[in-house]
Design a protein that fits this description.
This protein is mostly beta strands and 418 residues long. It has 2 domains: 12-188, tricorn interacting facor f3 domain (Immunoglobulin-like, Sandwich), CATH 2.60.40.1730; 194-363, Immunoglobulin-like (Sandwich). Helices cover 8% and strands 51% of the residues. It has 1 helix and 29 strands. The strands form 6 sheets. Strands 5-8-3-2-11-14-13 form a 7-stranded mixed beta sheet, with no helix packed on it. A 7-stranded mixed beta sheet has the order 19-22-17-16-25-28-27, with no helix packed on it. Strand 23 and strand 24 (291-297) form a beta hairpin. The termini are far apart.
């Protein structure tokens, strides 16, 4: 049995022979949408069962088991369905078997990575159609990355068009049972083959704004060495800085992009850890009926890559109370309330929202601070009045005329003694 990567949250069994037979539904309506990004692919398969079945099998043609990032199945009410997965090392077929007892349709979401190579252009192997154990009519759409220039693809029954600025490869095919329909897509563009292994976010709101620190480990999922990473700039940011365990890193923040230069090159599968620190304006915290509110997504808007593990901590001002966190929990540490949330396998296509509401202790401190400022201004005004205003108000008394100086008499000469 081949070992399973730790982060893969499914059970994989290596079969020495054929897959076990499953009660697959016949006459099924199958629609596949592939979100093709340079460092990853997300397959969304919508399947309507033509007749009741206990399970349903979907196969993928892969070059390595390491290409599997995550597999999740959802039922009609978006509930998570049970599933098993099987890897046949001799044929390179990865098959997911979904428990379909008592349902008439479901959705299978499969995320792959390490599927793209770069050499003057990008080449990605795509499963245009699924491998099924029965004949079926399948409709597919493969959506290329934004900004990609399509050069070629090798799959029959597919045509290309443009939708929303992206190239779309689409078509419908009558599939024969156990047929493999995978092919290459080649395109040009400016993309990075990286992903985020983990991202730890810390937010500290205050009356003047929100201080943010985000530490992450970037992993190279491409076939060439890299020494930089490029992200979108955080919306509304100010005072941005980037550093690692040694010190400040060189970076370029312009035209909505943040480019970070590493101290060393990293190979395929290697990672680099660094921290991005910046501030957000006070408008990032809204106040409704005396309660401060912070909302957003666990995966920040500046990150357009896959993220395996994401965690968030929001440290509320001292004295805050009555905190409520949707999508997370609240604890108390060192006299401060801390809201926490975490999630796995996030991407721009799958994120997790959060909403924090609390009574800010900064409000009372702010009132005291403002009162202290007013008192200080009043005292300063009184001091200035006493020092300068009184002198200007008091009329100057006339000075007596100066007496003329009397000429000094010279002493008489001293006569020499006889």
């Amino acid at each position: 049995m081949q070992s399973l990567p730790k982060a893969l949250a499914i059970m994989l069994l290596v079969l020495a022979s054929s897959l076990p037979s499953v009660a697959a539904a016949q006459g099924v309506d199958y629609r596949r949408t592939v979100h093709l990004e340079a460092p990853y692919q997300i397959y969304e398969d919508e399947i309507w069962l033509g007749s009741p079945a206990e399970s349903y099998a979907v196969g993928f043609s892969l070059t390595s088991l390491n290409e599997v990032f995550q597999v999740i199945a959802f039922g009609p009410s978006n509930e998570t369905l049970g599933r098993e997965a099987f890897w046949m090392n001799t044929t390179g077929i990865f098959t997911v078997v979904v428990n379909t007892t008592g349902i008439d349709h479901f959705r299978l979401v499969t995320t792959l990575h390490y599927t793209t190579t770069y050499s003057s252009n990008y080449t990605t192997r795509v499963n245009f159609f699924p491998m099924l154990d029965h004949n079926a009519t399948v409709e597919t759409s493969v959506i290329l990355p934004l900004g990609a220039e399509l050069l070629s693809y090798n799959m029959t029954g597919i045509s290309n068009s443009t939708e929303g600025g992206r190239t779309v490869l689409s078509g419908t095919l009558e599939l024969n049972a156990n047929s493999i329909k995978a092919g290459g897509v080649v395109y040009n563009g400016s993309f990075q083959l990286i992903e985020i292994e983990w991202l730890n976010r810390t937010m500290m709101p205050s009356p003047s704004g929100v201080s943010v620190e985000e530490t992450l480990r970037v992993v190279n999922v491409g076939n060439t060495r890299i020494n930089y990473a490029q992200f979108n700039l955080p919306l509304g940011y100010t005072e941005i800085s980037v550093y690692d365990s040694i010190g400040a890193l060189d970076f370029n923040a312009s035209n909505g992009s943040l480019g970070v230069n590493f101290r060393t090159r990293i190979f395929r599968g290697e990672g680099y850890v660094f921290t991005i620190k910046y501030s957000l304006p006070s408008s990032s915290v809204t106040v409704v009926s005396g309660r401060s509110q912070i909302t957003g997504d666990l995966l920040p808007s500046w990150c357009r890559f896959l993220a395996r593990d994401v965690s968030l901590q929001i440290i509320m001002p001292a004295g805050s109370s009555d905190a409520q966190m949707s999508g997370g929990s609240v604890s108390s540490e060192g006299g401060k309330l801390i809201a926490s949330a975490s999630a796995q396998a996030l991407s721009p296509y799958k994120n997790q929202p959060f909403a924090l509401s609390y009574v800010s202790g900064a409000a009372s401190y702010s009132g005291i601070f403002n009162l202290a400022i007013l008192i200080a201004i009043a005292i300063a005004a009184v001091v200035l009045y006493l020092k300068f205003g009184r002198k200007r108000a008091k009329p100057e008394s006339p000075q007596p005329p100066a007496k003329p100086q009397q000429p000094q008499k010279k002493p008489p000469p001293v006569l020499p003694k006889k």
